[in-house]
Design a protein that fits this description.
By secondary structure, the chain is of the alpha/beta class. It has 3 domains: 162 residues, Rossmann fold (3-Layer(aba) Sandwich), CATH 3.40.50.620; 87 residues, no CATH class; 101 residues, no CATH class. It contains 15 helices and 7 strands. It has a 5-stranded parallel sheet. Strands 6-7 form a two-stranded antiparallel ribbon.
Length: 368
């Protein structure tokens, strides 16, 4: 079974998944990882350039997955027609399901799979977790590499005795008493699961990983069938700055749409950029990003406008043709300046990673 387990990593064209591919290639060259890219046919040129650069660096072909493979139209257009021209939105994310998740799950089939996900150590979200029992997600950039479903089972109050026995096997004797105090304390309103998890991680990441790995032998997950796992001793926690450093130092480079562009409004200078990869007309974009698209890629903006018909629009209660009116553009840029001023002393970047906040099972949730 161990030889049949597949290791996969989805490349979105975004910074995090690209950096993860580089990171795993450099640190764990023994892993035989399959790389894939779900192509919607509506990406910016910089996305395809990143894919090419990555292929050179990792020395492997990144498999292109396309929905509606036998259609004569780009995948997005094919499914847009099937949905009667109904544009995807945060409430109806058919694009995620049809263009990303379904092609991915067809790609892995029923094989036992370890899926590496590039959610960073400075993000507070889980991302997409497949409901298929043969797919197990691992998060190498985080302090906790395990998915929420695994943690829920491992830290369940019913499993306290099992966990305690496993800790006694792995923990240093000097730490045994303190660790068992935490393990034996039931999860409650006064001691929520997140507190228990973080305390155990603080007491030893690699020990926690080995305990969870052994616990997996009692339930059915792909890692239940292997004798060892290289990432058990990994204690790296990578944040946003690390991602950009990896991309630059590797020579793969940062996609141009992440680089800030200066603009001026009312004598004041500001900056804008794109916060993520993905379709150029993604409905999760902030309005300042739509302005960026109009001014930096007018041809793509025009194409996005052409999709707005029959009462459907990318932005709730506002159409793209109205966003680019001079007064409205000025207003959006002024709001961006105010937003930047409010966040100037904060650690968070001036432009939010939209899907970092909004995703539950999104297009970049398992491919960021």
């Amino acid at each position: 079974m161990e030889n049949k387990i597949r290791h996969v990593l989805g490349i979105s064209g975004g910074k995090d998944s690209a950096a993860l591919a580089i990171y795993l290639k450099d640190k764990y060259p023994q892993l035989n990882i399959e790389y894939y890219f779900c192509d919607t046919g509506k990406e910016l040129d910089e996305t395809y350039m990143l894919i090419k650069n990555l292929e050179v660096y990792i020395g492997k072909t990144i498999t292109r997955l396309e929905a509606g493979k036998y259609s004569h139209e780009p995948p997005f257009d094919h499914f847009l027609k099937l949905y009667g021209g109904y544009l995807p939105s945060s409430n109806s994310r058919w694009c995620t399901r049809k263009l990303k998740l379904e092609p991915f799950e067809r790609f892995v089939g029923d094989d036992p799979v370890i899926s590496y996900v590039g959610i960073r150590g400075d993000e507070d979200r889980e991302g997409y977790i497949s409901k298929k029992p043969n797919i197990q997600s691992i998060f190498p950039f985080r302090k906790n590499i395990w998915s929420e479903d695994v943690i829920n089972k491992a830290l369940k109050n019913d499993n306290i005795l099992v966990l305690a026995n496993l800790y006694e096997k792995h923990v240093d004797k000097a730490m045994t008493k303190r660790v068992l105090e935490i393990v034996n304390e039931p999860i409650s309103s006064n001691f929520p699961q997140t507190d228990k998890l973080n305390t155990l991680l603080d007491l030893g990441i690699n020990v926690f990983n080995k305990v969870v790995f052994d616990f997996l032998k009692t339930i059915q997950y792909p890692l239940s069938y292997v004798n060892d796992f290289l990432l058990l001793d990994n204690e790296d926690i990578l944040v946003r700055d690390d991602i950009f450093r990896i991309l630059r130092e590797s020579g793969v480079g940062v996609p141009k749409y992440y680089e800030k562009v200066e603009f001026e409004i009312n004598g004041k200078k500001g900056e804008y950029a794109r916060s993520r990869s993905g379709c150029f007309f993604c409905f999760f974009q902030q309005k300042i990003e739509w302005v960026w698209l109009y001014e930096q890629h007018p041809d793509k903006f025009k194409m996005a406008m052409e999709y707005e018909k029959d009462g459907y629009s990318w932005i709730q209660n506002e159409r793209l043709k109205d966003i680019i009116k001079p007064e409205r553009k000025r207003q959006i840029k002024e709001e961006q300046l105010k937003h930047a001023a409010r966040n100037i002393n904060k650690k968070s970047p001036y432009l939010l990673d939209i899907l970092d906040e909004a995703e539950g099972e999104g297009c970049a949730a398992c491919f960021i």
